[in-house]
Structures are given as C-alpha cells and as structure tokens.
Amino acid sequence: GEGIPPLVEGVGGRGAPKTCIGVDWKTLMAMDDLTNTEPIVVNDITIIDVWADNLEEQFKHLCHLVTVHGYRFVAMDTEFPGVVARPFGSFRSHTDYQYQTLKCNVDLLRMIQLGITFADENGNLAEPCCWQFHFKFSLGDDMFAQDSIDLLTTAGINFERHSQDGIDPMEFGAWLITSGLVMNEDVKWISFHSYYDFGYLIKLLTQEELPAAESDFFESLRVYFPCIYDIKYLMKSCEVLKGGLNKVAETLKVKRIGPTHQAGSDSLVTSLTFFKMRKLFFDDLIEDTKYLGVLYGLGQGGHSAPIPWNE
C-alpha cells in the first residue's frame, strides 16, 4: 500500500467530512483521547510466512478463521514493484487518469507480497492473526522500478527466495476464490490508500488484465470485495490525522510489530489503526452509506484536480 505513486492527493467526492471548517466537539474529544490514550502494544504475535510449499496448509487454516471462528475483519496490504509506466491519450477526468495509470502498471507488473490480518468485529485479533504471502518474482525476468526494489530490499525482502520458492499467482487465485474471503458480504476488508492493492488482487482473481473502464473495475470490486473500508478515505472525517499509514499509526499510538514495507507487518498496523480510529473518531460505528466501498483517489473517492496531461 505505501508504494502508491505520489500523484496529486486531494479531497472531494461523496462522504464529506463531518467538519470542513474549524474543529467540532467530537474532534476535540478525540484529540483529548489521543493525548490520554495508552499506546497499543501487542505482544507474542508471529507473522506467518507463506511460500509455495505451505500455501495449501495455511489457506485451510485461515479459511477456518472466517467461516468457523468469525474473524471477519480482514486488514490487507500488498508490496509491488513500483510504477513503471504512465498512460498516454485523452482522459475524461483526473480519476480516469489515475485509473489508467493503475491499469497499465498492474497489467505489466507482478505482486511481490500480500499481508492479511484477521480480527473480529470488536478488534480482537485472531490467534494466529497475520499471514504474509510471498509470490514468485524474478529480478531477472520481471519488470520493476529500481527505487521500489531498493526500498523493499532494505526492508528485508529476499528476492532470491521469491524467485525460487514464491507462490504461483494462478494457484493463489484459485485458493482465494474458494476461500470464503471474497464474494462474501460478511467479510469486511480494511485497507489504506488501497486502489493498487485491490487492483493486484482483482488481477489475481480474474487472471486477466484489469478492465478498460474504471466503472467496470468497480463492478468487479463490488463482486469480489463487497465490503471495503479505506482508512485514507475515512481520514477525511478526522482532521487531526494526516499523512501515510506510519504517520497515522504513530498519531494513534499504535506500535508496529515487524519491519515497515513488508506486507504482513503493514496489514497488522492497518488492522490496529482502523479499530483505534473507529473508536476515537466514529464512536465505534462507521456510516456505511458514506464510506463503504470507496477507495481514496478513485471513483467517488477521487477529486477534481486538473488532469496531469492530455495528449
């Protein structure tokens, strides 16, 4: 998720913030709660690494968490090899340009990691709760942006092992489609600025390039992931929360377990951040008519900034 290209950020779309000017009393109370709240410290959590040789075993286990044990809040993050292309042509809107940039890069590139963390409706983490899937990726054969690979290497990603032992995307997609995690309105997906993350997941599930039209992409998204909360979009109603995932987690006093820029750790931070944010800013009840299914930066979660180019 943090590897999303630094295109123009903005505000707009449906689901406007509770307050646009000044700070209302709920925000003041949340700020006071932030001042007095204890840091979230989660001990004894193991992030389970999944490679080709233990994919089936681990998928069976995590499926039971959803279908049997009721851990239906699934926080997700991906790591991917950056952005290597920009679209040419005429664009109807800024979000159309954003989507075409997403499409051309997801079509060209391969996901490197997927992290998922399971919690119940009250934010209680499953035991175990966090899985990190490592996909087949070759620095010799696959396309990438060098700065992204440098960042991921520094974060500890072992690209030699990804090349040798990584998960085949087609096999992963087959397991995911039958897992109960997708096409299930009872499963709530939690993410942060996540249209690239979901772009790669749609590609895994369909084994096809992304749709040509943004509207068709959202139609696929609603089929496979009917319930999504994007923290970055929720932040539009939380004036004191700014920046990326790490900054928001720091503001909310969420302590990280594991290295940043690895998908498992980032998904765990995403889960903890969501529930802390929901408690402090939304009274533990998020208004789905405003926020459900909106991805920050695309569609109704986009904005009306000038189109970067129009050739």
Protein model, in words:
This protein is α/β, with parallel strands linked by helices and 311 residues long. The protein has one domain: Nucleotidyltransferase, domain 5. 40% of the residues lie in helices and 11% in strands. The protein has helices spanning 25-36, 55-67, 94-108, 146-154, 159-165, 169-177, 195-206, 214-224, 231-234, 245-251, 263-282, 288-291, and strands spanning 47-50, 73-79, 113-119, 125-134, 188-191, 228-230. A six-stranded mixed beta sheet has the order 1-4-3-2-5-6. Strand 3 and strand 4 form a beta hairpin. Helix 6 crosses helix 7 (195-206) and helix 10 (245-251) crosses helix 11. It is globular, with a radius of gyration of 19 Å. The two termini are 29 Å apart.
